[in-house]
Every structure is written in structure tokens, then in C-alpha cells.
Specification:
mainly beta; Immunoglobulin-like; 7 strands; 1 helix; disordered N terminus; 144 residues; 4% helix; single chain
Length: 144
């Protein structure tokens, strides 16, 4: 059994959960658009596999990490970032499209953007009777 400090999401993103193994061969295409369009980059993705217990109704999560290097990836102050994740066979797994506006930020400052996709598992059959704050499971997350 795993114990989390805070949410599962925060535990994984902050390195407080040990991966079981890594999976090789994933790639991502990174692009942005706005007042200018930087060149798209295809980058290797280091993918970590986690297990969160012995419950067969909970999918085991993966976490992908992309290293942009020292130069990073220069984007317009306002626009859209697109990250397309490919499996080792080259098939698209997920396309993230994240709109952002950094025009109010001072020069040389840092921030992060996060987009989540949540789902309700199939084994919960009557979702109409659930309250709006019912537990949902994290399906996809991009943290930029």
C-alpha cells in the first residue's frame, strides 16, 4: 500500500513516489503558436511506471518526463502549447493543447501550467446520482 503526502498527483510530480521501472522509446512533439511560431521539436520522453496498490480496478499510472536542456523552449508571451505524446511504435497516445497568457508576468520570472483530464471508471454505473464533488480519477496530466 502506498501512502501519499497530499494528492497522488503532487506526490508523483514532486518525486515523493518511487517508480517501479522505466519504459523506453516514447517521444513527444512540442510546438507553440502565438505572435510567432517556434520550430517544433521532437524529444525523447523518459517514462516511469508506478504501481499504487493491488486493486485491479485502478489503472497503474505512467509518468513521462521531457528534458528541454539548458536553452529550454522559447514561446510567445501569449498563445498555445501543443504536446503530442507517441508510444514506442510511433502511435499517438495523447495530444495536449494548452492555452496560456503570460503577458502580466515580469521578465525572467517562472511559472507552471497544468492541464488535467479526469474520468469516472466504468465500474461506477450510476453517475447521474453522484454529487458534483464525487471522486474522479486522473487520466492524463500535462505539467509545463
Amino acid at each position: 500500500m502506498c501512502l501519499f503526502t497530499g494528492s497522488f498527483e503532487e506526490s508523483v510530480l514532486n518525486g515523493r513516489l518511487e517508480p517501479v521501472s522505466t519504459v523506453q522509446g516514447f517521444t513527444a512533439e512540442l510546438g507553440a503558436s502565438g505572435s510567432f511560431c517556434p520550430r517544433h521539436r521532437i524529444l525523447p520522453v523518459t517514462v516511469f511506471f508506478y504501481t499504487i496498490g493491488d486493486n485491479d480496478k485502478v489503472s497503474t499510472p505512467y509518468l513521462g518526463h521531457i528534458n528541454l536542456g539548458k536553452k529550454g523552449y522559447h514561446v510567445p508571451r501569449c498563445g498555445t502549447i501543443q504536446v503530442t505524446l507517441f508510444n514506442p511504435l510511433g502511435t499517438v497516445i495523447k495530444m495536449f493543447v494548452v492555452m496560456y497568457d503570460l503577458t502580466d508576468m515580469p521578465a525572467n520570472s517562472q511559472t507552471f501550467l497544468r492541464q488535467r483530464t479526469l474520468y469516472m471508471p466504468a465500474f461506477i454505473s450510476n453517475t447521474a446520482s453522484l454529487p458534483d464533488n464525487a471522486q474522479k480519477w486522473l487520466r492524463y496530466l500535462v505539467h509545463l
